[in-house]
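Re-running the complex after MR caught last week's input typo. The corrected sequence lines follow. Everything else is unchanged.
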Amino acid sequence: MENRQLAETFEAIGDLLEIKGEVVYKVLAYRRAAESIRSQSRAVQDLWREGELRSIPGVGEALATKIDELLHTGKLKFFEELKREVPVTLVEVLRVGDVGPKKAARFWKELGVKDLPGLEAAARAGRLQGMPGMGARSEARILESIEALRARQTGRVSIARALPVAERLLESLRAVPGVVAAEMAGSLRRRRETVGDIDLLVGAQRPRDVIGAFLALPEIGRVRGQGDTKASVELANGLAVQLWVHPPEHFGTALQYATGSQAHNVRLRELAQSKGLSLSEHGFKASSGKMRECADEAEVYAVLGLPWIAPELREDRGEVQAALEGHLPELLTLADIRGELHAHTDWSDGSNTLEEMAEAAAASGLEYLVITDHSKSLGVANGLTPERVRQQRRKIEALQRKLGDRVRLLHGTEVEVLADGQLDFADDVLAAFDLVTASVHSSLRQSRDRVTARMLAAIRNPHVDIIGHLTGRMIGTRDAADLDLEAVFLAAAEQGVALEINSHPERLDLNDVHARRASEVGCLLAVNTDAHRPEHFGLRSYGIGIARRAWVTRANVVNAWEVEQVLRWAAGHAR
DNA sequence: GCCGTTTTCGGCCCGACTGTTTTCAGTCG
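Corrected-run output:
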């Protein structure tokens, strides 16, 4: 059983317990454990075999026993009994805005509502209004929320879709009179791979004026709520946006609060309490009632005795402890990247010529570019035969003479790892490349053992330098291949083979949790764009976000090295 | 249900907004 399934089980238990009316701290304990399991860099199943379940934060005696039962039998009696008590389909009702555990429980007990269609039918029939504390407006609001939920399909959107929208909104807000600062916050600022909504924070003396100006923007579709300091809207394009406005004097605490994550904020507030302070978005309140405001975010951390923590780390994955101990990593930045190791041209499935891609690389400030067109078996991508590989090499050499020292071109390949684990080029063909990336594009649904064996075979081929987009997942559309990641990471570390963080926003593969584990066991990484056209070089910032979320530093990122070091490594890491 | 340089028992973050309320519960982030 995978971490994701364990986390989902505990999450469902938390929801059902909450509907049942269990004490809130027990509910929170299940949720915290679920989140902790989700962000575990190792497979819980492995920890279980090693008897290390209790090392997972938030897992105590009771939950360790439950994990043990789940992994032994695939089932959990406690959960099965709970489902007999409370219909598990009620969990979907909680996803409706303005419906929480209390209302869900009452709809169920008093109206017999067991699932989402049941709730909708009850609302349409006017059966919700008239219940204590519920009027016609509450009922209409719930119907609206159900429709919004259906229209959005999945609740989360790609960071690449949300980020440009957020930037345009910030530009509009900065133009509003009285606005002295406007920043994005929330999961967007933390650079999660997908975001549930866009969170924006503005610093201004007269918040109400800013909110009025914001609600008048042409992009706004529907206003979900508004007050003196915050507004919640849905844009015409369906994205949800939240705006907070605070006076500049406490912009720092407000930005810290709005950035989250919630679990990170809870840690900070606990830390504040231990110093006799109460931390909120408005500032630190001493027991005397005296407020200490922070205009700057770094000051918030300083008051707590911490160095500033980069937003990408704020997931309650050990960053507060690391900050307390002075062990925060010096994170990779976009400026650290010197070269691109994975790019395609019209020789295979890219859109542009060698020369156009080389010019674009030079223009974007890259020192070197490795051309890695596909190999012959990837027919849909017009993969290269060995003969075309030789032709391409001559072209690249000629182009290099023309380019001079503006950008260094290297000849590489993205060679297919075939269904049987063989590579798509013979060893003598592979040996002639400057750099070899091996990737899987098909037969991703093979059994765990077979996919893992293919990857291990590729890693152990002495010519392979990098494994491209390891799991093959496409966010929201294709699941990751079932792989023994731990075995792959250990083999890659041993062979000195680098693992790619593919920056394409639909891939982001490795993801943050996996990249962190790979890095922990000593793997080299490469933050590549897999560019198929010049604009794609700009996607690297998304890969950098993942690398930072994975606590990655410059030293073990191959394309942060100078080109000569890359070539020495490519020539010599195999044993 | 978890957890411990205040504790192995008694705590467990903090505030805004909404709707339907004459003072607050529920939801959300």
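None of the earlier attempt is carried over here. The two ends of chain A are 35 Å apart (CA to CA). Residues 512 and 550 of chain A are 5 Å apart (CA to CA).
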